[in-house]
DNA sequence: CACCTCTTTTGACCTGCATCAAGGCAGAGC
DNA sequence: GCTCTGCCTTGATGCAGGTCAAAAGAGGTG
């Protein structure tokens, strides 16, 4: 775990804490200062574990840069990723001392952190922060439920297409063709999709051979026609973003 | 859709709205009256659709008696149940006019309802209701993520054992052997578990032949040893309740 | 460059669950 | 009671994706 230079935060932490700007549209001036005084930043390298499943988690916060994964593990070692956190996503759970999932940095990662007890006090004192957090939690719940459809009913090819399309849309810079760097290894993708690494690899190859995507090195991906990829994913063309 | 006699509500609606007692532990006396004045009750028969996916949903509320299902459907008809609502569970989404999922009465069902706009006003005026709702939403999110592990990684037998164990524990009256009435048809179970109806049936038969459960008619189920069933489910013995 | 390690791809084979197709059984209505 | 209808179970077969094994890249290091 390395130190993050807080002076970088002004630009990087656009939407923090919990989508700072959105929240603070209704903040008084000194509320912003109080929030700012409570923040700290911490960084991790790709692959580092932030908390283990069940371990105490004395902070909450949000992703500033990079990408983190939430994973549940069965006793025999089977693993399922249950969330993929991107910048501005919330980490941790007010009102609960232990992490329900393992949290791992998928890429190099910086979090904006609050001590949990201080954050809980803020929730009580500042209702609009609680309202914003409720809204975000309900969005997360919808995303989790959408992903249940992916896990329960989609074929391997549809699953991979769904994930790639989501990543492409999030990273979207409206270039043509659409490009993105995959924040996940093949193994992490398999863990997310309820597949094995071999199946993920085969399906990616299949999509490449069908001309739906192009690979640029190990992590780079390009997509000439997102709507074609979405059809392959079994979604209607304007299917919603899934976490 | 039939009318529910509000006079029955006093007993039945122990935890409504949004676990009324829990909320109202910190309510003033007249807050309770105001909440009560906003409520209404409505009942549905087993199998009736309450709202279709994407249709306008002008109310929110909570389950008083019975059991409802939340389901997402793909264009080609594949369906995945994404939530199973039991008494005291919350229905609907403040801040959103349309239902994200189809809601169906799995059994005969009574809901305690609030007009959505009135409820949203209450959320703004009564912060502890919002806090309670946040807490409930985070619990739902954990449950949804736990179910992702079931869908993504468990075998058919483990899935069925997981569902049956959850139902038995919810209905638990601490009798021995544990008994419950299944609120779901085989088809609904299949939709929940990401399986087909035939596979569900075969796995139930398998669990019965292994002596882990006994069937009592079509809907009745008994379990002589819950911890044995939980081991079959791939959980540790005190695995948590899953929605 | 050679060497090592880690990730990804590819191949061959197998199995768990889906699919297709009959039956069986319980409750409702006559 | 009989029959109809809607669930549920059972059987036979096929295939998608898992498993096991090996090879091919892609970095990193001396």
Automatic annotation (TrEMBL), chains A, B:
Instruction: Please indicate which superkingdom the organism of origin belongs to.
Output: Bacteria
Domain HTH crp-type stretches:
154-227
Q: Ranges for the Cyclic nucleotide-binding domain?
A: 23-140
Give the record's keywords alphabetically.
DNA-binding, Transcription, Transcription regulation
Q: Which GO terms describe its cellular component?
A: cytosol
Enumerate the NCBIfam families for this protein: TransRegFnrLRhodb
Give the protein's recorded name: Crp/Fnr family transcriptional regulator
Q: Which organism is it from?
A: Palleronia pontilimi
């Amino acid at each position: 775990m390395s130190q993050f230079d807080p002076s970088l935060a002004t630009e990087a932490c656009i939407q923090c804490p919990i989508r700072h700007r959105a929240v603070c549209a209704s903040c008084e001036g000194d509320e912003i200062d109080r929030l700012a005084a409570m923040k700290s930043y911490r960084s991790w390298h790709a692959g580092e574990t932030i908390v283990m499943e069940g371990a105490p988690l004395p902070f909450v916060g949000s992703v500033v840069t990079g990408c983190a994964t939430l994973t549940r593990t069965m006793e025999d070692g089977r693993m399922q990723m249950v969330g993929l956190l991107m910048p501005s996503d919330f980490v941790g759970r007010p009102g609960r001392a232990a992490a329900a999932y393992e949290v791992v940095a998928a890429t190099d990662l910086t979090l904006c952190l609050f001590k949990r007890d201080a954050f809980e006090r803020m929730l009580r004192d500042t209702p609009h922060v609680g309202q914003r957090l409720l809204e975000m939690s309900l969005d997360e719940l919808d995303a989790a439920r959408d992903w249940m459809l992916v896990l329960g009913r989609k074929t391997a090819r549809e699953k991979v297409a769904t994930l790639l399309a989501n990543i492409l849309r999030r990273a979207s810079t409206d270039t043509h063709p659409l490009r993105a760097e995959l924040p996940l290894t093949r193994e992490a993708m398999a863990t997310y999709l309820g597949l094995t690494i071999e199946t993920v690899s085969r399906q990616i190859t299949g999509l490449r051979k069908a001309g739906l995507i192009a690979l640029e090195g190990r992590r780079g991906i390009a997509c000439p026609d997102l709507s074609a990829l979405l059809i392959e994913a079994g979604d209607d063309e304007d299917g919603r973003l899934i976490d």
